Amino acid sequence: MTTVQSPPAPPTAIQRPRVVARTGLYAVLAANAAVVAWFFAQAGFASNALIVLGRLTGLYAALVMAFQLVLVARLPWLDRRIGMDRLTSWHRWTGFGLLWTLLAHVVFISFGYAEGTDVGPIGEIVDLAETTEGVLRAVVAFCLIIVVGAVSARYARRRLAYETWHFVHLYTYVAVVLAFTHQVAVGTTFTSSSVATGYWYGVWGVALGSVVLGRAVLPLWRNWRHQFRVTAVVPENDSVVSIYISGKDLDQLPARAGQFFLWRFLTADRWWQANPFSLSAAPDGRTLRLTAKAAGEGSAALRHVKVGTRVFAEGPYGAFTALHRTRPESVLIAGGVGVTPIRALLEEVQGHAVVIYRVGSDRDAVLYDELRDLATAKGAELHLVTGPPVPDKLAAGELARLVPDIAERDVFLCGPPPMMNAVLGSLRELDVPKPQIHFERFSLAG
């Protein structure tokens, strides 16, 4: 049975959760950058300017590395406000910043120590690795970061299987440990005072603790508490299936319409594979539902999952929720199987809503009957837009015809990447303010 929830009124512009979280992150990073500079100055400067620059870039590389860990720790407070896709994107770009900062650290240090000698910078690195505790670990960490950065480049990433890329990426944690032990062994700023030592232990403790909490402790605890199991498997059409999942105390699970989980079905052939699927119905405290299209071997096998199968669910994740509303009325735009979080959101949003569902043909309109009934119950408008991709039936002119006041509404958008990019362009043409546009690129969630 469909339940219609009543969330609080839209937040004001000053209180927008994403703005608050983003500003908080920037403020914390800026404050730590200032603290690092202060400790660096307190430790004293070397006579060689290159060594001074090398030590400073090394300290900032350590700070960026710790910040990177926080970005991918999947902390619920950050994830609900910023979204995993944006946090992952920031993690990627700070990763390239880390790579260049580490490169500067290595270059400045090697040339600085080689100044006045006849061994050259490469020879100096070899001598330091052989004679100075912790330097060899730093060299190994740097090489690992180079490898991870190389496989994370767009060209390489598109040609690697996700499992291969993910396995290589795990070596980042090895690099983090090696870099920390290098800092403990030879970092003059680290050992300059007990306050500096305590600060750096705190930075690394928070960063590594966040990863352990968000990616291990919290998922394990939630699955132990809720005991998720499959209670029904319902084919929606030849290629789409809905799976209903129940468990204990689901009313205590902090899930909202529009969010997704990483689902592992604990069977002999699937326990190791996690797939991101959105909730296709608003959580009602008794059941969770996901709806998936057979887009690959993993999702195609879902229709064969047995009732009673145990499920390990990581989440809920995502900022694609009514928490980010800024206007009393909304437009919900779905493309293909992207209708799943849109259908769930329609249950939760307040005020007048317009739903636009873009599909190739009527038979592709998954969950359309539910959308129609829910729209009728809530007094929402529902438009089914069918036809080939060209001409674009969600171009600016068409959107303005369907929703004349679209610039005065929140817009929630979910669908295939090409369709989303096209609609985002149309929204820009219509001068819809950026804070009113809400979307998540779920392909990054895995």
TrEMBL record:
Cofactor annotation: FAD
Gene3D superfamilies: Nucleotide-binding domain of ferredoxin-NADP reductase (FNR) module, Translation factors
Domain FAD-binding FR-type: 223-323
Family annotation (PROSITE patterns): FAD_FR (PS51384)
Keyword Membrane recorded: yes
InterPro entries recorded: FAD-bd_FR_type, Fe3_Rdtase_TM_dom, FNR_nucleotide-bd, MRET, OxRdtase_FAD/NAD-bd, Riboflavin_synthase-like_b-brl
Transmembrane segments: 24-43, 49-72, 93-114, 134-156, 168-186, 198-218
Protein location: Membrane
Main localization of the protein described in the UniProt heading: membrane
Keyword terms: 2Fe-2S, FAD, Flavoprotein, Iron, Iron-sulfur, Membrane, Metal-binding, Oxidoreductase, Transmembrane, Transmembrane helix
Topological type in the membrane: Multi-pass membrane protein
Protein name: Ferredoxin reductase family protein
Organism of this sequence: Streptomyces doebereineriae
